[in-house]
């Protein structure tokens, strides 16, 4: 990658610190969550699990700045979140790619928006396309790709803008088991080179344990527990059992 591209698109050195303090959230006056206290530490992968309808996506929307809290504060590096920003990229289950743009055009989008010059934009997009294993597919349109490939494009697009936080809502939920496993490994690998803070929502406890530094269990209108994912041999099975028991109790 040319120097200019590397300079303008290099990932920030550390991820963003995200904090929810006494946050209540709801829709049209109907409360979904009350008094949520939760922190994503700079550079960590915080995975949120919880029963269906417990408010996992709602928390993500609040951090993204797409939903204003009814009470409490959401801060990014200590600054209240008042709306969406390029420092916090969202990745959804539905790929949300622009159908009329090629793979390259989609990956370049966040750089385009930031006004990065064309050559630097191209080089950075190419770098990310290669990292997610899509070299040779640059000129294809989203409809010519499989679901897994579209999620790769979405991942490359979200990271190409060098966000300091990536907010992922069941990004692999629609993929078959094999593609999902490949994408989980790919995500773990690319995150090593892009030290953003990640808040990742999933139903899948195995996925949580694979990716998380910490796992937050949501239920009954708030955060039930937050667990460190100690990756020491044997620790995974114990934590898996504990989280599954908590989820059963909360459902
Ligand atoms: N746009 C909306 N308008 C009104 N209510 C909503 C909206 N989005 C979510 N809700 C409600 O808020 C609650 C929490 O939804 P949310 O999608 O955050 O849960 P979730 O834990 O992510 O669920 P799932 O695991 O099923 O995706 C649910 O009762 C849901 O019906």
UniProtKB/TrEMBL annotation:
GO-annotated molecular function: ATP binding; ATP hydrolysis activity
Protease listed as a keyword: no
UniProt-listed InterPro entries: AAA+_ATPase (IPR003593), ABC_transporter-like_ATP-bd (IPR003439), ABC_transporter-like_CS (IPR017871), ABC_transporter_ATP-bind (IPR050166), P-loop_NTPase (IPR027417)
SMART domains attached to this UniProt entry: AAA
Keyword vocabulary terms for this entry: ATP-binding, Nucleotide-binding, Transport
ABC transporter domain boundaries: 18-245
Cross-referenced PANTHER family: ALIPHATIC SULFONATES IMPORT ATP-BINDING PROTEIN SSUB, TAURINE IMPORT ATP-BINDING PROTEIN-RELATED
Designated name of the protein: NitT/TauT family transport system ATP-binding protein
Organism: Sphaerisporangium krabiense
Organism placement in taxonomy: Bacteria, Bacillati, Actinomycetota, Actinomycetes, Streptosporangiales
């Amino acid at each position: 990658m040319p120097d200019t591209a590397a300079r303008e698109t290099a990932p920030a050195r550390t991820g963003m610190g995200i904090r929810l303090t006494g946050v209540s959230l709801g829709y049209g006056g109907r409360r979904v969550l009350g008094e949520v206290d939760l922190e994503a530490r700079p550079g960590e992968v915080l995975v949120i699990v919880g029963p269906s309808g417990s408010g996992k996506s709602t928390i993500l929307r609040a951090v993204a700045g797409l939903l204003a809290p009814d009470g409490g504060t959401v801060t990014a590096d200590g600054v209240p979140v008042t709306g969406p920003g390029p420092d916090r990229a969202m990745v959804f289950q539905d790929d949300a790619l622009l159908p009329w743009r090629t793979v390259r055009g989609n990956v370049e989008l966040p750089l385009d928006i930031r006004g990065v010059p064309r050559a630097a934009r191209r080089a950075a997009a190419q770098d990310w396309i290669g990292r997610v294993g899509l070299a040779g597919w640059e000129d294809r349109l989203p409809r010519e790709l499989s679901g897994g490939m579209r999620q790769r494009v979405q991942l490359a697009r979200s990271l190409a803008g060098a966000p300091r936080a990536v907010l992922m809502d069941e990004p692999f939920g629609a993929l078959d088991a094999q593609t999902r496993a490949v994408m989980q490994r790919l995500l773990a690998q690319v995150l090593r080179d892009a030290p953003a803070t990640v808040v990742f929502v999933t139903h899948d406890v195995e996925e949580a344990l694979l990716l998380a530094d910490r796992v937050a269990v949501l239920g009954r209108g708030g955060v039930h527990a937050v667990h460190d994912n100690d990756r020491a041999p044997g620790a995974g099975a114990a934590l898996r059992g504990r989280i599954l028991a908590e989820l059963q109790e909360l459902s």
